[in-house]
Amino acid sequence: MLALLRSSFKIAVDSLWVSKVRSVLTILGIVIGVSAVIILVSMGNGLRSMINTQFMSLGANLVMILPGKVDLNGGGFQQFAAMATSKLTTEDAKLVKSVTNVSEAVPFAASYLPVKNMGESVVVEVLGSDENYTKVMNWPVSEGRNFTVSEVNAGKKVAVLGVTTARNLFNESAVGKTVLIGSERFRVVGILSQKGGSGEMDFDKRVFIPLSAAKVLFGKLNVQVIYFQVLDRSQINTTVTQVKNALLRHHKDDEFSVLQSGDLLKSVDSILGAVTMALAGIAAISLMVGGIGIMNIMLVSVTERTREIGLRKAVGASFTDILWQFLIEATVVSSLGGVVGILLGFLGAFVIGRFISTEVTAWSVLLAFSFSALVGVVFGILPAYKAAKLDPIEALRYE
Amino acid sequence: MKQPLIKTENLTRTYKLDEMLVHVLKGLNIEIEQGEMVSIMGPSGCGKSTLMHLLGLLDTPTSGKILFAGRDVSQLSDNERADFRGDRVGFVFQQFNLLKKFTALENVVLPLIYSHKGGGTEKRARDLLAEVGLSHRLNHLASKLSGGEQQRVAIARSLINDPPLILADEPTGNLDSRAGSEIMDLLRNLNSKGKTLVIVTHDLSVAQGCQRIIRMKDGEVVRE
């Protein structure tokens, strides 16, 4: 068996070497499939871990109160509608803060508004809050200062900018300058430290203003989210229940939802996990196509080597021996494709990683490689069977 | 009682060719003793190649028996036939049938892959190649060897499992007369060391180099 393995391996490598162009084309299908699996999975995982880090940067002790009933398994549209008709108020935040084990409870009202400085204008998420948002979101000011409790109480038009927005609007330091938010003029008192994120989720584009000013600016009195933080993480479930009970005195059950950041993370994570699997599945289809390419070439190879097969049978090779030989050969071809694909996958993930975050995972590499080897076996069966079935006399006569 | 190495009893082989039955062998009875060197002669289509394929268990008879050292080998399973071909018979073909991308040495050890014999195999292959006068060509690719050299490698290959019987199908058919007579010398030499040889040929000079000639015509033995 070992000798057969060695000899089959040599034959496989030799026949690959003899027709190089054909071999490269045959293997290419597998290479593309394997590297696609690795790259796509690495992108999915990169996204997951990026979101993970962002949630973690909010703090594991963070709990959110959202308006309406939140279904973590879907219903994004209703969620937007609930935001607009939110029944949550500043008083609710005060109520929550009075619950045992709650260290901070901060209300937020949010709206997308244009923010302007001279000619520069950006549309960003403007959040009205009280001065404690930096604590509850674990997000310190890096330049200037946060707005104060007296500014919040007086409804002063002061703003703290996310670092990206500050950079987009001002060439020099923004602190002390004024910006136009919607139609109102605000004085910039501070810049937040870098938080991260990208696209719609870019925290550093946000602008914070006192909630009292926001109510005037947005023209609505309710708040859309209340964030609160617990002191003792081990008591978080009890605290959440107490918060719910407190809120139920003023609200109906379907007017709010209490979500721990861990729950949110889990749900986002499971969605992204599913997306990653779907991507891997699509890439796996290209592996199948690669397998069909291998089968095609193996069939040609069996025909070309009819005489060789006849001879092997004449010198004592059984049906099983020939079957094994061609199965090994197909597996060598596909595994070689697998190895090259892995290298290419790493390279691709590295290059793409310079633009968006990627993370090559061991399971995707293992999966892609074993799948490519499996493809070799599965698509090698038909050609191998054809070879093993050959009549030795016919085969020896074959020209 | 001393048994013949090969004995056939009413051996027939019929092919179906476009709904027509072609009777290639029509009840053949031959005996070949241990240590004999026999040639089978006859015109094309007389069934001599078919006979050789049957004796080497590459083919199965339509009816009749083949007794190999007294044992009926005409009804063996596929695997048993493969083992038989590996252990008991060495084939030498007109076309040599070497693996072109393999060296002489690799070609000679090829049958060992299937006969599951290990240990000292390379030494034995070297010895055999030396015996056929190719010790200076061990690591040459088969495709780089001359016809005569290739046939010698093929003979060494047929001997690697030390089979009692060598079947040669027109072993000199693709060689010039000088290389051909060298090959015949080699085969005679093997015979002198105890191997039983059956040589299919239509070259009279080859046949005359054997101890006995079986002449065939239309699927029957016409004269011994």
Biggest sheet descriptor of chain B? 6 strands, mixed
Unreliable segments of 5+ consecutive residues of chain A: none
Q: Kindly report the spatial arrangement of strands forming the biggest sheet of chain A.
A: 2-3-8-5-7-6
> What is the CA-based Rg of chain B, rounded?
17 Å
Number of domains of chain A: 2
Task: Quickly count the helices of chain B.
Answer: 7
On the 0 to 100 scale, the average pLDDT of chain A is: 85
Total number of beta strands of chain B: 11
H/E topology pattern of chain B = EEEEHEEHEHHHEHEHEE
Q: Provide the gyration radius of chain A in Å.
A: 32 Å
Helix segment tally of chain A:
14
Shape of chain B: globular
Largest interface, with counts of residues having CB < 8 Å to the other chain, equals: A-B, 23 and 26 residues
Could you give the distance between the termini of chain A? 30 Å
The beta-strand count of chain A equals 10
Which assembly state applies to the chains in this document?
Answer: heterodimer
Strand order of the largest sheet of chain B: 7-8-9-4-10-11
Descriptive notes:
- The complex is a heterodimer of chains A (399) and B (224).
- Chain A has 399 residues and is an alpha+beta fold.
- Chain A folds into 2 domains: 2-52 and 270-397, no CATH class; 88-250, no CATH class.
- Chain A contains 14 helices and 10 strands.
- Chain A has helices spanning 2-18, 20-58, 76-84, 90-97, 133-136, 149-154, 163-169, 211-218, 236-248, 261-304, 306-314, 319-352, 362-389, 392-397; strands at 62-67, 102-117, 120-129, 141-144, 158-161, 178-181, 184-192, 207-210, 225-230, 256-260.
- Chain A has a 6-stranded mixed β-barrel with strand order 2-3-8-5-7-6.
- In chain A, a hairpin with a 2-residue loop joins strand 6 and strand 7 (184-192).
- In chain A, helix 1 packs across helix 12 and helix 2 (20-58) packs antiparallel against helix 10 (261-304).
- Chain A starts with a helix and ends with a helix.
- With 224 residues, chain B is α/β, with parallel strands linked by helices.
- In chain B, the strands form 2 sheets. Chain B has a 6-stranded mixed sheet, with helices on both faces.
- In chain B, a hairpin with a 2-residue loop joins strand 10 (212-217) and strand 11 (220-223).
- Chain B is globular.
